[in-house]
Write a structure and sequence with these properties.
The chain is of the alpha+beta class. It is built from 7 helices and 6 strands. A 4-stranded mixed β-sheet has the order 4-3-5-6. The protein is globular.
Length: about 250
């Protein structure tokens, strides 16, 4: 049987899909390493068990698949009916049995991957709306999923580190975070400086006269910026500030 390939032939989109699929495999591998009786253990996210993280990642795939379906059919199918419905879905999902949680993750990941694979070339540019109300092309669902699987694999608290996330993902994630800060005005007098050979310019309030300069490797800076860890990060102030809220 001949394997079915993505309908899109766009090189950049195919590269992005590959990174998302590798992230899906990475999350799945970290999940499979966990015994069933540990899924109720604490994740790296305050107030969430590992089961919450797994349920969230599973339902996120289904929600993104709805956006892709919207782009293909033109029939509006929102990610969630409401923020409350999303939160209730995750809370309920966290109570599922280990085998049900594992099935949720695997089946939802397959569903989203099939939707991506069968998306016609033109549909990738069709606009859909995210849960936050942003209007984006359907191609944005690939980055939205990439961010989820790579970062939440670390949140499973099973030994994965932010340094294992590909640099291309970390760079875009850091730009997304600092862009959100800038939109809200939360980056005032704060500059991020990536060291260690990564070719990123300073990010943040780069025109400030006397900013706090937070420096570290790309992985360490990104971990701090998204609220996961301050390990390896240093400040030109006496005490390192807490990163502004991201999402």
């Amino acid at each position: 049987m001949v394997a079915r390939l993505d309908l899109t032939q766009d090189p950049a989109l195919l590269d992005a899909l590959l990174v998302a699929r590798r992230g899906t495999a990475f999350f799945g591998r970290k999940l499979n390493e966990l015994p069933d009786d540990s899924l109720s253990g604490q994740s790296l996210l305050a107030g969430w068990s590992r089961a919450h993280v797994i349920a969230h990642v599973g339902y996120n795939a289904r929600a993104l698949a709805r956006l892709v379906e919207w782009a293909i059919t033109g029939v509006e199918t929102p990610m969630y009916s409401s923020p409350e419905a999303r939160n209730e879905e995750i809370a309920l999902g966290a109570t599922l049995s280990p085998i049900a949680l594992r099935n949720l993750y695997e089946h939802s990941a397959i569903q989203l991957n099939v939707e991506w694979r069968d998306t016609p070339e033109k549909a990738w540019s069709h606009e859909v709306k995210t849960a936050q109300g942003r209007t984006v092309p359907a191609s944005e669902t690939v980055w939205m999923r990439t961010r989820e699987v790579w970062l939440h694999a670390v949140d499973l608290n099973n030994g994965a580190g932010v340094a294992e996330i590909p640099a291309v993902v970390l760079e875009r994630l850091l730009r997304d975070i600092t862009g959100t800060w800038q939109t809200r005005g939360d980056d005032r007098d704060l500059v991020l400086r990536v060291s260690g050979g990564d070719s990123l310019p300073d990010l943040g309030d780069t025109t400030a006269a006397d900013p706090e300069v937070v420096a570290g490797t790309l992985a360490d800076i990104t971990a701090w910026a998204c609220g996961r860890s301050s390990r390896g990060v240093r400040s030109n102030r006496q005490e390192l500030s807490r990163a502004p809220r991201w999402i």
